[in-house]
Automatic annotation (TrEMBL):
Phosphoprotein found in the keyword field: no
Bias type Low complexity, positions: 1-10
Keywords per UniProt: Membrane, Transmembrane, Transmembrane helix
Highest taxon of the lineage: Archaea
Record-annotated Glycosyltransferase RgtA/B/C/D-like domain positions: 82-221
Segments crossing the lipid bilayer: 131-149, 155-172, 179-212, 244-275, 287-306, 312-330, 342-362, 412-433, 445-466, 472-491, 503-530
Name this protein carries in UniProt: TIGR03663 family protein
Region annotation (Disordered) ranges: 1-27
Xref: NCBIfam families: flippase activity-associated protein Agl23
Organism from which the protein derives: Haloarchaeobius iranensis
Amino acid sequence: MADAAAASAGDDGHGTDGGTGTESESADRPLLGTVVGLSLLATALRLLDLGARTAHWDEGRHGYAVLRYGATGVWEYRPILHGPLLAHANELLFYVLGASDAASRLLPALLGGLLPLAAWLFRERLRRSEVVALAALFAVTPALLYYSRFARSDLLVATFAFVTVGLLVRLLDTRDPGYLYAASVSFALAVTSKENALVYLACWLGAGALLVDHRLFWKRWSLVGDGDRRLAAPAWFRDRVDEAVLLFAVLNPVVVALLPGVGRVVAIVLLLVALRCALWVVPDEGEAFPVIVGVGVAALSVLVFVGDAVLATYAVAWLVAGAYVLGVLLRGSDAGRTLSLWRGPVFLSGVVFTVLVAGLYLPRGQGLDAVAGDPLLLADLVEQALFGSWTAASELWFGAVQDQSILPYTTFFLRTLLAGAAVTCVFGVAGFLLDRYRDGGSRDLVAFCGYWGLVSVLVYPIVMYGTGPWHAVHVAVPLAVPAAVALSQVYRWGRDAVTDRRAVPAALAVLVLTGAAGTAVGAAVTTAYLGPTSPDNGLVQTGQPGTDLDPVLAQVSAATDGHDDGPEVLYYGASFAMDDESAADRLPVTDEYGWRNDSYRQLARNEAWYDRLPLPWYFEQQGLETESVRNATALRAALASPPPVIVTRAVHRDTVARELGGGYEQYELQLTVNGTDTVVFVNASTGRESKR
C-alpha cells in the first residue's frame, strides 16, 4: 500500500508515502502520549459501572454456556455461540473473578479501551492530528462504546481485524518480519472471535479491487503503458505476460463456478488451452511443456473416471500449473528475489496462524484428555477443530440464504449507523472525498479504509442474521480513518484561520469541531449510560430485557438460600416448559436449525428454553436447580412441595396465584425490550427467614 505523499508539511506533520521516513523521536513522544491518554480515557469509559445493565439474551446464553463449560470441562465449537476466544477467556475470568455481568464483559471492554492505540500503527501514513482524531473516534464513537460494554464478539473481531491491517501497513513501512508474525496472531484471534472474520476478508478483497480500479483507471495507469506514464505493472511482468494469458486465468474459475455438470468438460478444455497459452510466458523454457500437458491430461482423466471430484482436481491442477508458471515468471526478477527472501517468514506466519486457530477451536473434554493415552487421536481433533468447525459454521451462517427483501435490512442498518456512528459516517464520507480530490492524489490507506467501510455497508444488510445493531461496529471501525482525515482538515483550516486572523472561518471550524464532539459524546453517554436498555435507544436490540433484574434476583437469592428440598425454580407454561430439562446441561439445547416464520431459528421440542433468557444465566450463577411444567394439572402436582421461586408469563398470573394460595411476592419483569410480560413468584416467608 504505497500512499501518495501526504499534504503539505508543517507543525502538524505527516507520515511519509512509502514508509521510508520517520518523524523525530521528540515529535513522536507527545503524539504517543496523547494516543495513550485517549486509550486510558476509553478504558475508563468502558469499565465505568460495567455490570449495571441487565444481560442481553445473547450475553445470558453465552454466560450460561461458559458456566457449564467450567462445571463440566467439556467444550466444543457451536456456531450459534460464535467463536471460541470469548468462551475460553471468560471461563478463565469466571474462575479468577467469579461469574458476573461485569466479568463477562471485561475482555470486550479492555480491547475496546486499547483500540485507540491501533491509531499509532498508522503514524507514518497519517498526519499527527489525524492519528489523534482516529484515536479519539475509537474512544467515543457510540456504537464502539456500547458494544465494548457487551459480552459479544463483534468488538473483538473488529479490533483484531483493524489491528491486522495496521500491522501489515507497518510491515510495508519497515520490512520487519516481526510485524508479519504479529499480523498472523492478530488475524488468528479475529478468526477465533467470530465467523464474520471471513466477511472482513471479503470486504478487504472488495476494497482492494476498488483501490486497484482507482489506480489503474482513475489515475489512468496502464498495464502496457507508453512514454513516461507511470506503469501499474513492472517491466519484467509486462514483458512476459500478454492479455490472452490473463484472460484465460480469469475466465477459468468463472467457468467452473457457472457451468456445473457438462460445463466442467468445457472447464477442463479451457484449462488445457490456458496452460498451453502459458508457454507464451516462458517461450524459451521447453521443459515446461511436458509438465503442463501432464497436469492437463491428469485433470481430464479424473473428469472421465471420477466425475464429481473433478472440481477439486481442477482447482489443484490449476494451482500446480499456476505455481510452476509463476516460478518461471519471477525467476531472476526483483519480485522473485523478494518472494525468496520472504518465503521463510510467510511460511512461519502461516504455521503460527494455523496452530492458534486449531488450538482455540480444539474441543475440550474427554476427547482431548484421551490424547495423552493415544496421541494419534490428536489428528482427528485437529481435523474437527479446523474442518468440522468450518462445516458447522457454513451450514448455519453461510448456508441459510436470506429470503426476505433486502430493503428492510438496509433501512434498519442505516438507522443503526445514524444512532451509533453518525459522526464517524458523515465525516468518513467527507474525509474520503477530501483526500480523494486533494492536490497530489489520494492516499491508499485512506482510500482503502473508505472502500472497506462502503463495502461493509453494502454487505452486512445481506449477511446479517436478524436485526443486530452490533453490526454497526464493523462499519464504524474502517470509516474512522477517513473520518479522522476530515476532522483533521477542519482543525487545520481553523488553525490557519486563527493564524491569519480570519474570524469567520475560525468560528466555523470551532463550530464544526465542537458540534461533532458534542454529538458523538452526547450520543455515547445517552446510549451507554443514561438509557442502555431504553426502547428509544437505537443500539438496543430486542433481546435486551426492559427491566432491571437485580432487585428480584436479590429476593430469589434470599428465598432459595438453604433450600434443599427439590428444585428451587419452577417454570410454568408452554412459553417456558421443556420436555427434558437435562438438555440444557450443554448448549445448544436443540440440535437442529431451520426456517420458521421467515426466520432461521432452533427447531426442536426444547427450544422454549431460549425464551427463559437471561434468567438461566443468573440462576446458574446461584447454583439453582430448575424444572418446568406445561399445564395446570402438572402445576398442581408440582406445588405439592412448593419451590421457593416460580416463573411464568403474566397471562398465567391468576392461575399460579390461585394454586399457591398466598405467601408469595410477585415481581413483574420484561425479558425483552417489551412484549414479554413475565411474573416471578418468590416465597416471601422463606426470604424473610433467610434474611433473619
